[in-house]
Amino acid sequence: MTAAPQEETVNLTASGELEDALERHPDFPRHLAIKIDTQRRGVFYTPRALAHVDPEKHQLRSPYLFGSRDNTLSQVPESLLLHDGTTILTDPTPLEKNPYRVDWREGEFALVDGDQTVVEVELWPKPDYYGKTTRSGTPMNHVFTARPQRLNFFLSGFCQFWANDKGCRFCDLVTHWKRQKKEWNVASSFSSDDIEETLREALREKGRFTNFCLTAGSNLNGPEIFDAEVDYYVEVLQSIGRVLPGGKFPSQLIGSAYNEKQLARLYEQTGLSSYTSDLEVFGEDKFDWVCPGKAEKIGYQEWKQRLIRAVDIFGRGNVGTGLVAGAELAKPHGWPTEDQALGVTLSEAENLAEKGVTTVYIVWVPRPGSYFHDQANASLDYYIRLAKGLHEIRARHGLKVFFDDYRRCGNHPDSDLSRLL
Questions:
Q1: In the chain, what are the domain boundaries?
Q2: pTM
Q3: CATH 3.40.50.2300, applies to 140-420
Q4: What's the chain's average pLDDT?
């Protein structure tokens, strides 16, 4: 396999931020704090670790919606598991940005900070269908990528919010998709035959996968905005339904802000069971700055109302929105303090929860191909407080996160806390 083209240098002084945060939050699970900090800082795989990666056993990186902080398409491991089952979606990061290192120590992989082993880790196991192709010659891991218990249909296509330089400022979807298309020959779309064939092959691995997630860039085309996007998702979901007949199947669509007619069509014509549409940041002025395309075409208040109206179709707890947590603090127009950002974010999440909409967050990764490429994300303390706050809101309102929980997704630190309920 290909190692990242860097020599390893070791900083013998650990940051101490993890331990400081845990002292301030003694009730917060240690493994979850490690997960957040690893997502926040990224990882670098040492040559010693890469020498023990087995491409026949371990899952390597596949086409994905977004790029990484090392700005490469190298075949490093996809991600990590902690021994309690916690999933960490990692981001390969250059050494000069002070990531954690994944090393090989005493016969196993370890997450290392400075010269200290923080925790032993495992690499994601490779799914049986990886390395196989469909009858048309399409690599199956281009059609569906995998997390430990989830199949992802992540069509890394063009997002039309990027027109006229109005893409979300934290996002590198378009620049990354163009690179994958050139270097990995990633297709712009997949046929129903490829989808069904890949899905049947993936499901031969009994007990591995429990749900599906579908997402892509936004498509504004059609008689009404997003009609063409909905057309394609209906086609894909119906292809899945031919493999899994019998009504609803455990699934999540992360799409644009659809109107009621489009939502009803998705619910009535497919087996889709949950719908998510990401506001990305809370607060109308921050949304307008961070997501100018979304603000221009739909607007913050209408986006929220479309989420609320979706509850009447999919039900309480089956509609959600996602935040790119930390982007609301970006300079120069973000919140000036973490306390202000936290207050607005939790207030808005509470308002949506009262109406049956869940809120989860991902840790913002400043990516080289994004407008925010030279920014820094938030503190570990902020992410811990946000995780606790969102979890408490859902618990108060009796909202579940089946489609985004610690088993099926693994990308949302706040939803990992659902293990405690």
A1: 17-123, 140-420
A2: 0.94
A3: no
A4: 93
